[in-house]
Amino acid sequence: MLRQKSYHLRKDETGSVLLIVASAMVFLLGISAIAIDMANLYMARSQTQRAADAGALAGAKAFVTTGCATGGCNPGGIQEVLGRQQAEAAGGQNYIAGQPASIQGSDVTFSYPNSQEPQITVIVRRTVSTFFAKIFGIMSANVGATATAEAYSPVGGGNTSVSISCLKPFLLPNCDPIHTSPANGSCATSGRGYFFDPSSGAIAHPGVYPAGIIGMPWQLHTTAAPSQWYLVGFNGAPPSSGSALRDHIVECTPKIFTCGDTLVTANGANVGPVTQGIETLINAAGDGLGQGQDSINTTIGPPFPFTGGSSNLNPLLRSAQFYDYSETSSVVTVPVYSGEPLSPGGSIVDVVGFLQVFVTQGDSASLKTINVVILNATSCGGTPGGGGSNGSVVSSAGSPIPIRLIRTN
């Protein structure tokens, strides 16, 4: 009887292992769905954030290239058209789950908490197919990311200053000969105003020339004092040799210069090295206009259109009109100092700001000057030692205005 009872019990347990395995398979599939699908979604989320970051940074570049970061950005301006185009193009170069990111016009918005510190926000979304989760009826999941970037201005306080990674060895005094009020009594020549208000650090005359400084003509390498031509010796004391000046004009200096840094002026005109450096920099065959270098049209804009010269390094831009500052080697950034007279034997000056200029031509035959057009400006914040002491924001080569990602509320 015991054997018979045991047999019936074993018979009742037939197939129980199958039920346990089947139940375990459901559990394992659930774990797989969580592990594999969640990992896939996390990766897609990371790719989405990368696309949003790229789009925001690229779009914010339009604040600089249109000059509105200096002149004051207004809602609905051309910077929004260019910024939206650049954001969509840059975002589309990033892949999400194997497909190019798609940024629509409505995914890009602009805000202006400060007219000289504009912001752009980019949203990227993607629907990602699942793998194991399809068993539970979850066919796809949505991921999204948001990024905000701004053209950073240190004016208005804060503990962050601006650093420049590609500075040219030409010095500009903070002495505006066109806008003479308020007057800068420190200038070597009387009756001149400020580019940067030393008390607040604000750009004294933002906007388009002649009311503002955007598009304003200027001359580099002019006579400052005996043996002084507003040149900087980037390799310290003793100041740079002629060959070093030529190299610093053509190439980027290895050092990053920050608001408040001290600079040593170079002695002598160094006409030959300066001329050689400028002509190599802007791809000009000689003095004057029409020597193969790019040109600028300040009667339109900003943004001011460039026309590629016959020696532009990009064959597609020769004789073509374009707006991207990075496409021309004629756009450079130079330091600004407070403007006091330079000593005949050399001076040590402090950086109070930076100007971005377009070099139109050199003239070594007569006045030994270099003609430029002002495109952008950034101040060091109006404090004696620079814009701040708790860190700096490094701008990209060729621009005085940093573009950075920020967190918003």
SSE blueprint and pairings:
Elements: H1 2-12, H2 16-65, H3 68-71, H4 78-91, E1 95-96, E2 99-100, E3 108-111, E4 119-129, E5 140-151, E6 161-164, E7 172-173, E8 217-220, E9 228-232, H5 242-250, E10 257-258, E11 262-267, H6 271-282, E12 295-296, E13 306-307, E14 321-322, E15 331-337, E16 348-350, E17 353-363, E18 369-379, E19 392-395, E20 403-406
Parallel strand pairs: 6-19, 7-15
Antiparallel strand pairs: 1-2, 3-4, 4-5, 5-20, 6-10, 8-18, 9-11, 11-16, 12-13, 13-14, 15-17, 17-18
Helix pairs in contact: 2-4, 5-6
Structure write-up:
This protein is α+β, with helices and mostly antiparallel strands. Residues 384-390 have low confidence and may be disordered. It has two domains: 10-151; 161-400, no CATH class. The protein has a five-stranded mixed beta sheet. Strands 3-4-5-20 form a four-stranded antiparallel beta sheet, covered by helices on one side. It has a three-stranded mixed beta sheet with strand order 10-6-19, with no helix packed on it. It has helices at residues 2-12, 16-65, 68-71, 78-91, 242-250, 271-282, and strands at residues 95-96, 99-100, 108-111, 119-129, 140-151, 161-164, 172-173, 217-220, 228-232, 257-258, 262-267, 295-296, 306-307, 321-322, 331-337, 348-350, 353-363, 369-379, 392-395, 403-406. The protein starts with a helix and ends with a strand. The longest helix is centred in the first third of the chain and has 50 residues, at 16-65.
TL;DR?
It contains six helices and 20 strands.
Biggest sheet, in brief? Answer: 5 strands, mixed
- Structural class, judged by helices and strands? alpha+beta
Number of strands: 20
SSE pattern, N- to C-terminal? HHHHEEEEEEEEEHEEHEEEEEEEEE
The geometry reads as: elongated
- The number of domains is 2
Helix content: 10-25%
Q: Please report the distance between the alpha carbons of the first and last residues.
A: 79 Å
> What share of the residues does DSSP label as strand, in percent?
15-25%
Write down the overall mean pLDDT.
85
Unreliable sequence segments:
384-390
Number of helices: 6
Strand order of the largest sheet: 7-15-17-18-8
Radius of gyration: 30 Å
